[in-house]
Write a structure and sequence with these properties.
There is one protein chain. The chain has no helices and eleven strands. It has strands at residues 3-7, 10-13, 18-25, 32-39, 46-51, 58-60, 68-73, 78-83, 92-100, 116-117, 121-126. Strand 5 and strand 6 form a beta hairpin. It starts with a strand and ends with a strand.
Length: 127
C-alpha cells in the first residue's frame, strides 16, 4: 500500500508559477510510474503529465505542454509538478497518482491505470 500526500497548492495570479510536490510512503517509490491529474467540479479527472519510474521518460497533455514540467527525486520519494504561466482555467484540485511498474511498461495517461492516489491539493489562479 502506497500513501501519497500532495502539497504546494494555493492562490496565484494569472501568469504566475507554483510547484506542487507529492511525497510517497509505504512502498518502493521507484517501482512506480507517477502521474499528475486535476479535476474541477462536474468534470472528469484530467490527465496532465506522467513520468517513468527512472525519470527518463515523460508525457504531457497538450493543454499543459510547454508550461508544466514533471520531475521526480526517488531518493526523496517525491514527484514534482512545476507549473508556469498559469491561467484561470488551471484552477482545480490537483492529484498525484502511482502506477505500478511491470516489465516493459511506460507511463500512461489513463487514470484507470493508476493504483494509488493522493488526497489532492487546491490550485486557484485569479485573473
Amino acid at each position: 500500500q502506497v500513501q501519497l500526500v500532495e502539497s504546494g497548492g494555493g492562490l496565484v495570479q494569472a501568469g504566475g508559477s507554483l510547484r506542487l510536490s507529492c511525497v510517497g510512503s509505504g512502498g518502493s517509490f521507484s517501482t512506480y510510474h507517477m502521474g499528475w491529474f486535476r479535476q474541477t467540479p462536474g468534470k472528469e479527472r484530467e490527465f496532465l503529465a506522467a513520468i517513468k519510474w527512472s525519470g527518463a521518460y515523460t508525457i504531457y497533455a497538450d493543454s499543459v505542454k510547454g508550461r508544466f514540467t514533471i520531475s521526480r527525486d526517488n531518493a526523496k520519494n517525491t514527484v514534482y509538478l512545476q507549473m508556469n504561466s498559469l491561467k484561470p482555467e488551471d484552477t482545480a484540485v490537483y492529484y498525484c497518482a502511482a502506477d505500478k511498474v511491470y516489465l516493459g511498461s511506460v507511463p500512461r495517461s489513463d487514470s484507470a491505470a493508476y493504483d494509488y492516489w493522493g488526497q489532492g491539493t487546491q490550485v486557484t489562479v485569479s485573473s
